[in-house]
Design brief:
Length: 257
């Protein structure tokens, strides 16, 4: 049904774990050449080795999305290694928790720098390469938290995820001149390493609040990324795709039955 992504050159930030790793696998299984980036070089190397053992065509690059020079270096290295770039997945993100009473200025800055500024820096650095692509694609990993919902402890996180969407809407207009689309995935609660660190009680209560009665899988989110990257999604830009098992829908606990 969809045109093959075979040979597409893809960069996934935060690709060494969780949703990013799911997106990496998704593209690589479609025959794309995939670069994955993260800060921790050891975990990244182990991840690359495991993916290659599965027969997937991947390369790892150490970089911090919150640092402009690191991002420029990353994107240039990936484009050099692959001879260009077709798809940029801005996925790297952090979600430390802290109530409004506790949050420090540094906590706020770190989350905004990684989640929101990181997306801007990556898109800006990738633009010259995406313009050369047959059809360029940018896919942001945002969240339901912030754009649609709230959760105590995540005021800074919610602000960063909503900021990604504000950035996207103007970027979509500017990028459209070059035939590049930019869209966002809004996952609900997805069972990743990062989410598991929130604890078993949190995970269980989240699963209970989802009409489809399970947390999302990284493959559920990767499917959205593959769709936005497809040739067939070329007339969709500046849009958000909620992938949450219906989590935002119930008006009360009773609604879940
Ligand atoms: P995760 O399991 O903690 O993985 C995060 C990835 O991002 C890792 O590869 C990490 O590697 C990388 N990373 C973090 N900070 C980075 C930085 N400054 N520069 C480069 N790489 C960085 O997280 P996840 O749950 O998969 O979340 C991924 C994305 O999905 C985030 O944007 C998150 O907000 C979003 N999301 C997650 C959920 C969920 O339920 N899990 C729901 C909605 C949205 P290093 O630590 O080595 O850098």
């Amino acid at each position: 049904m969809f045109t093959s992504l075979q040979g597409k050159r893809v960069l996934v930030t935060g690709g060494s774990a969780g949703i990013g790793l799911g997106i990496v696998r998704g593209f690589a299984r479609e025959g794309a050449r995939v670069a994955l980036s993260a800060r921790n070089g050891e975990r990244l190397a182990a991840c690359v080795a495991a993916l290659r053992a599965e027969g997937l065509d991947v390369q790892g690059f150490v970089a911090d999305v919150a640092v402009a020079a690191s991002v420029r270096n990353l994107v240039d290295e990936v484009a050099q290694a692959f001879g260009g770039l077709d798809v940029l997945c801005c996925n790297a993100g952090i979600f430390p928790s802290g109530s409004l009473d506790e949050l420090s200025e540094a906590d706020w800055d770190q989350v905004l720098a990684t989640n929101a500024k990181g997306s801007f820096l990556c898109v800006q650095a990738a633009l010259p390469y995406l313009r050369q692509a047959e059809y360029g694609r940018v896919i942001l990993t945002s969240s339901i938290t912030g754009p649609v919902t709230g959760f105590p402890g995540w005021a800074h996180y919610g602000a960063s995820k909503a900021a990604q969407l504000g950035f996207m809407r103007t970027a979509a207009i500017e990028l459209a001149r070059d035939g590049i689309t930019i869209n966002a995935l809004l996952p609900g609660n997805v069972l990743t390493e990062g989410l598991q660190e929130m604890g078993a009680d949190y995970v269980a209560s989240m699963a209970a609040s989802v009409p489809l009665r399970r947390l999302g899988s990284v493959d559920d989110i990767a499917a959205g990324a593959l769709f936005f990257a497809s040739r067939e999604a070329g007339y969709i830009t500046g849009q958000s795709l909620i992938i949450d098992g219906g989590q935002i829908l119930p008006e009360s606990l009773q609604a879940l039955g």
